[in-house]
Amino acid sequence: MNAEHSPTPAQLGYRWPAEWERHASTWLSWPRKPETWPGKFEPVPAEFAKFVRTLARFEPVNILAGGSVRSLAGELVGDLKNVILHDIETDDSWCRDHGPTFLSSITGLPPALVDWEYNAWGGKYPPFDKDNAVPRRIAALQGRRCFSTGIILEGGAIDGDGRGTILTTESCLLNPNRNPGLSREQIEQYLRDYLGAIKILWLAGGEIAGDDTDGHIDQIARFISPTQVVVSLCDDPSDENYGPSQQNLIELQGLTNAAGVLLEITPLYLPRPLFHDGQRLPAGYCNFVFVNGGVIVPQFGDADADRKAIAALQKLLPGREVVGSPSLDLIWGLGSFHCLSQQEPI
Fold this sequence. Notes:
- This protein has helices spanning 9-12, 44-56, 70-77, 95-98, 120-123, 129-132, 134-142, 170-173, 184-195, 242-252, 303-316, 337-340, and strands at residues 14-15, 23-29, 61-64, 83-86, 101-105, 112-117, 145-152, 159-160, 165-169, 199-203, 221-225, 228-233, 264-269, 275-276, 279-280, 289-291, 294-299, 321-326, 341-345.
- By secondary structure, the protein is α/β, with parallel strands linked by helices.
- It has one domain: L-arginine/glycine Amidinotransferase, Chain A (5-stranded Propeller).
- The protein has a four-stranded mixed sheet. A four-stranded mixed sheet has the order 4-3-2-19. The chain has a three-stranded mixed sheet with strand order 8-9-10, with helices on both faces.
- The radius of gyration is 19 Å and the shape is globular.
């Protein structure tokens, strides 16, 4: 859709709701690619199924599970009344990034979504043609209006407050492996046109060690209300995450939202360093997911840090049930619950 010839979603009255707003469902893509978890794929479906079961306690779950994984998905979660399996194949499991951005409206507009292009984080993990087709497949499945942007953008690269403020990183959205022909100003215009952005907040501090996405914001910092943000933080000066995470904190402390209100920043302290086959894993609690009435927080086998993350989010979100679910096997794929899921708003 060319904004010069057709009205943009923002002009039509669509909006991108905050993740804590009411969901119709959460969308997932069933794990199917052993290369994503090299040498450790066997336990992944079972741990993924535990996540699905926790999600299904709170809201409906739609899972893309076509082809070779359909039987196992049915065996592990097919008994859940809140789970629907769809015969749609994907290349990989990261639905946050290859899935659509669902839109809503307050004026009764027909259901719609945004179809961003997807190239597996700068062409790192081909093939990705089935993943890139997911938004269009979901639009056809649901009869949604589909706004195709023509630019590459992953869902994990942006976080919003539902009121026009979007948080992102320079290292990802300005990376030449995505949209080398676009300037910062042009990318911001796409966010205004398709998501209704009023103010875009850019972090330059740095990535979480082990992250292969070039700095997705959902590993670094997340809105939990229009005025509150949580940030991944390391307090060990000997850890490679110390400098970047402290810089992210400093940058966030000086930011205001679209309404001009200074953001309140709360740290979510990272667990002790996790490695597999000598590789640092991007384990962090900002990869939690909002669900109806709750929050699901990844647990990484660091009992003290896991407990403190749940307690911190429970204090910040007293009206929700904050629960943990294991992610020690999933994180070897270099992502966790938020990376794996995409919310569909009411």
